[in-house]
Amino acid sequence: MIERADAFVACNEMDDSLLFTLSGAALSTLTIDASPIVRADAASLASIIQVSSMDLIAAIFRRYPRHRSIIVEDVFPLMLKLPASKKSLRTFLVKKSAASSRAGDVARGPPTSNVDDHDYIQPICALTLLLIQSCVVMPSQDDDEQMEGAEDSNDSWALKDDHSGLQGCVAVCNQFTSQMLQRCARKGEEGGASEFRPILSNLIDDLLLVRHLPEYPAAGMLLLYLSHRLGSDLLRASSAAKNQVEATYLATAMDAFGKITSAVAGSLQRNRENPFKLPESMNLCAPSPEPTEEINRCFCGRGNLDTFMVDCDRCHSWHHGSCVGITKDTVPDIWLCDDCTLQTTVVEQAKVFARGSRDSDSLTSTDHNHVLRQLLLSYLSWTAQASHSQIAERAREFLIASWVKQLESSEENLGSFDLGLVRNFAISQWTLPTPQPNQQRPRAHLTDDGNQRIMTSLVASSELCVSFNRLLGVILRLMGDKLASLRKLSVKAILQVVNIDPALMTQPTVRKEVSRCFHDESISVREAAVSLVGDYIIQSPNLAAAFHAPLLERIVDKGISVRKRAVRIFRDVLLSNPTYEGRVAACHAMMQRAADRKEDDGVRDLIHETFHTLWFNSKAFDMGTTGSPAKSKPGQMGTKAELYCKEVSAQMVEVVRVSGSNEVLSTLVKGLLFGFAEGDKDKKNVERKKRQEDSHSQCKLLVKALIELLLSFEDTREHKEDDGKQLVAILATLGVFAQTFPELVVPHVDTLVPYLKGDNGVKRYEAAVVSQVSSMISGASSHFGSGELNRLTSGELPNDLVNICYKFPSEAVTSAVEALAKLANHPDAASDSIQEKKLLKLATQFYSYLLKTKDVTNDFSSMKKSVRDNVRRALAALGSICRFYECAGAADDHTLDSSVFVIETDVAELQLDNLSNAAFALFLQYLSKEDESTKCLALRAMNGVFISRPRVVLVAEQMGIITSVIGDEAPPSVQIESLRCWRDILISEEKRIDSGAAKAKMEAQKNVTLSKRIGGDQDGDSTISGSVLTKHSERLYALTLSKDEKVRHMIIDLIGHLLRQGLINPMETVPHLLAVQGDVKCPSTRALALKLLQTEGEKRPDMLRKYLSCIYIWIFCETLFFYLTLCVLLSLVPLSGQRICAGIKQAFHFQRNVYSDSNNGSAKVTALIAKSDGPKDGWETIFDAVIKESAIRNKKAQRQGLLKGIISLFEKDPDVKYSNADQLPMLAFASEILGNLPYTSLSDPLFIVYHSSCIAALDGQGVLTQFAELLGGDVCDPNSEEDDIEKLSKQGKFDAAQLGLEAKGAEFGQLCVEAARILPLLKLKQFLRKAYNISEARVTSYVPSEKELIHEKGISISDGPPFSFTMKSILDADGSINWSNSVKIYSSFRRMMRDAEADDVHVDPEPTKSPKRTTKRKRGGSDQVVEESPKVSPE
Q1: What are the two backbone dihedrals, phi and then psi, of residue 518, each rounded to the nearest 5 degrees?
Q2: Within 10 Å of residue 1091's Cβ, how many Cβ atoms?
Q3: What is the percentage of the chain residues whose pLDDT exceeds 90?
Q4: Residues 501-521: what's their mean pLDDT?
Q5: In the Cβ-directed half-sphere of 1297, how many Cα atoms lie within 13 Å?
Q6: Single pTM value for the model
Q7: Which 3 state secondary structure label does DSSP give 315?
Q8: Which of 284-298, 449-463, 496-510, 772-786: highest mean pLDDT?
Q9: Smallest Cα–Cα separation from 927: which of 909, 911, 908, 946?
Q10: How many CB atoms lie within 10 A of CB 721?
Q11: What is the DSSP letter of 286?
């Protein structure tokens, strides 16, 4: 009965009640579960019922246009009742299109289905498309005819300007998309929004699946209108307030929009890569002669199987009969393959429809499309006749109407066809011919593959694909939106598009937006952008070069996930392209991250894994065991593993050469070989140990490769200027492995020793060369056997080391002395060995020179340069000898007397055992010199004694040396040198303990008890230096306030080492680190202090949070220190405004005295510093970075406590009559802090506006009244309008004497001070309301105790200049009033008070929510009362 109901509806007129009953019953059948998992026979019957019901609904929809709106609205409640399980979701059978395999993650139908040439979609999707296609009417034959069918049926859907017959289809698409997206956009769970969003996603998946099928041409139209409506919603959300945007809907909309855009990109790409090869002229080329061999051109791709095949009668290519639908019994007399059919049909149609007057016989793509549409129309006509399918019949009518619309929309004829003839011919085929018995297919018939190729070509030229640039433009525009959520979603959407067509990444507009996202303020957006580039950078070398610089910046990104992704990208690039041009920069950047102590373990592990794979890959080395030796010269490495080592060593040298130092490489190698072996968990620990074992086993080959590289360099060098840099890089790289495994260098010592001669032909780099080689000799010396030692020391080695001390700068001298001392201290060295004699002679000569010149002058800066250089060299060499040479009884007594440090005047009595004491006494003499340079050199030399004999530090403390070199009397250069020496001492002691040298020294001492050995007291002397520094901690903290930038940086560096080694109290250190955040003159110092704060914050988050709550206890800005007493910090009671005001007042006067401006003698106060985040420049307060890294921004109570403490500074002290004018610049600074802090919740600026309004209302009105009393104004209404003073000030004609104010100047000035106290709050309130778009109604309704609203979180300040306030001086230096500045403050205060009062009176009404409708829905309306949405037009 249902199968015949559609024919009954088409032939008979029915009333509305019967129609509604039929449509409701038919729609309800779609809720039946038609999946085969229920029961195969039941599923088949259910599918038949559903298909028949769809035909019935389509018949009603087609015959009764006035009911279309109601039926469409009835579809939406039905969607919520449909089977939702994955197996029951898609049960409607459709053919598999050519693009179905690329349509996304669309479910392929029931799991029990064995049909390979079919797909499944949702029945509701099939119904929607059938309804749209049922609305089409026959196009008019000419422009004068009106659409009589539409007028007769009173069709309000018709568009008067469109004669194509698609008006009803457009109207249905408009209503469907509008209703669907309105339901999806509702907030929260209102109206079933959470259920409709997945329905929308599934619907788009189905539409993308069937849009290449001839039976569903309406899929393209519906996708077109959905895409435009989705794009409009996304763009509208971009400009809307955050509380008006539903985040979940945005995610759904952007995902759907990305799916559609990516599918369009795929269609264009497929058509671009596999275009139709159709004739470009009406003169068809003659077919090629029959080939001598059989050629299989079947589209299935299979070979010549043992099966039935047919031959094309034109090109004579063979095709499988099963593929083209021909059996042995149905072979036609003439058969052409798809290509030949297209070729001949195009030429035949061209001859029929060609214009009479044409310049040439050429054919365009527009002409080809007309022919393709005709072929598709013939296919649909034959299908409709053969199967009596309503879907096929409606599809052919829709195709005709779409063809006519395309013809009508053509502005000019771009082809050879006569469009009028084509239009009339298309309309003439509207009526489907009556099928004849045994009717054959048309001659111009294509296979299913041919029809799919036609659809692919037509889809690529459809209106949806033509609008691709617009779709892509919407995504690119949203990538720069102010909402971080939209930016992230848009990056993911562009990722979907580029996944389909990677060539889009080469477009300048796409690359520009992606590059901009690399600098986005949101970590998630930056990660998405990096991931987007990473997916394609390996495929395209040009793309890798274009994004090299942005990716390199992301290695130091604040986001851990961003850094990890950037490292992975570079790893993949370096592995896939060893010759990558940016290899060196990428390797250096990654090694720097791995060397950073603050780096996340996950990132460091990833970097180590990367370099292990690149440079220490055991599999690559294993090739040498099985691979055949490569051709090489005798004596050179020949295995594959050795050749691999050559390449690796060359890459390492290149990295060191470009970076200019081997420190990062050394840290990386040590990390790979020794780092992270203990205390880690499970799998990571195992992986790290495995990497260590692999790396350790390959170092020998790498050292050998580096030696080979060194020899090859010497053989091929051309003695150019850059040769020295290459030589230093090779030696520095070799030095890395010499530090790690010194024994590997021993076999190659003879190759290295000649470089100590210092005549290597590289003048600029000779010092670096001899320094590197000396360091390697020093490290390898402990592994020399007695024979090797005697052989080397009996040669030129000692003399070469001594000569270095006379010829090269202090850095090379230190390395040479260390090597000579290590050789002298060798266990196998004799007591009177050559090296020891050389060392003693060297020490004696330098000691004698210093002894001779110590009394020559008190200021060596006035001496000749040669004398100064000799003193420098002598102090450096003597200090190094004291540091590196270990005497027989090197351990000092527990109590060391300062009397042992006496200058030995008889040089003949000088021995290495007593050299240290005499040298220390001599160093003291030079430390007392007047010139700073000599003082620093003496300190550096004394540092050698301190490192080798830590107990001498106690003597220096007793003698007051330490106090003198870090005191206020010491010059900045001496302070810097002393701090550097302390840092070197701490680092040296740390290395000595970590390397095991301290333990070996303890075991060598016989007087160490067994309990100390067991207890692990490896070296008690190592704690002496730290203990002495702890004693001077207050002075160290005071140095953070030094006027010298270098001193501040050096002291922060030293504090970092003290914190890491646990030698100072973090509770006392954190306030000083917070103070340094204001050091805007030295960004490196601020960054270093911030890094230490972050480290302490991770260790002790509660401590840092407490300090940030009292952040104004220590404030240090560009020229400003706010220093509150430490007792306030340590007391846990809330800070009162009075106590904070007292502390800031005290600190402000201190700052103005210390940091005065050279121009006018006053300090410039500012709380802002410039920041540069990629392409965007801006401003931030000096505490932004600290607050962002802390947890205070997540705690409302702590934020409000901080803000209340600052605002209380503006409150008047009730114990005094007038405020102090000297306090006003400090209030201006505080207002800048309040106006520019990084607020993330609207409650923070509301809190400031609220309290500012309270202070202005209470104190401001009192000040206005006092002004009125003083000036004789209206006391009842003192500020109703501009007074005479304001008018004259505006005109520039104010004269105090003319107004009789001279006698009242003192009192007027004091009142102006009170007004200036309130004025920053008035300006701040005005700024915050504008910057954060706060309405007066929201200000009025705000209560500080209210809970934070969800939609008011995640705010950001609008673009514009920062808040800045400059306070003019009201009183002159002699205490008299400055009338010019005072009148300006008076006028501004009165004007802003009037504005504030006007805002309080005119309150903008808050938009009220309309009450929920409870009326029952009537026919002709929607299921809820919804405002009519404007129709969405593709244009």
Answers
A1: -65, -25
A2: 17
A3: 17
A4: 85
A5: 0
A6: 0.69
A7: coil
A8: 772-786
A9: 946
A10: 10
A11: P
